Amino acid sequence: MEKIYILCVDDEPDVLRAVARDLALLEEAFPVETAASADEAKALIGRIQESRDELGLIFCDHVMPGQNGVDLLIELRGRLDLDLMRRVLFTGQAGHEDTVDAINRAGITHYVAKPWEREELLQVARDELTSYIIASGRDPLPYMRYLDQERLAEHVHRRNRTDTGQ
What number does CATH give the domain 4-163? Predict the structure, then answer.
């Protein structure tokens, strides 16, 4: 079974370590990768896809050297091979215009302000990955203990009703 990765992109090593630590409860089912720049993130995405794995969720900071996070998310949104990936802007410095761009052009599915609370970050990851699993059409059962069990069970119930013609 292919892996579904979580990627965090931020130019601050302390932030990357903290995110990996805070998402450790999901790591068994959703490996966490980190990148310090947009270029590093694109290279990592390429390696994930080369191994026939998937990127289910990206947390991306906005203010980074080189390509900023909103522009990276806009670029990734334009790729058909990443159309189901969930995109979260993860920043403390995005202005109003940047945030509007992230919503309208990058298709972010959530915004997390820095500093964050561990439980908030975990909840956002669970919600976004639940949506990813449902949208991908994959069997949700292997992910039940990590994600939103109620939403996944409801999805299975709806799918079963549709399959039986009810």
Answer: 3.40.50.2300
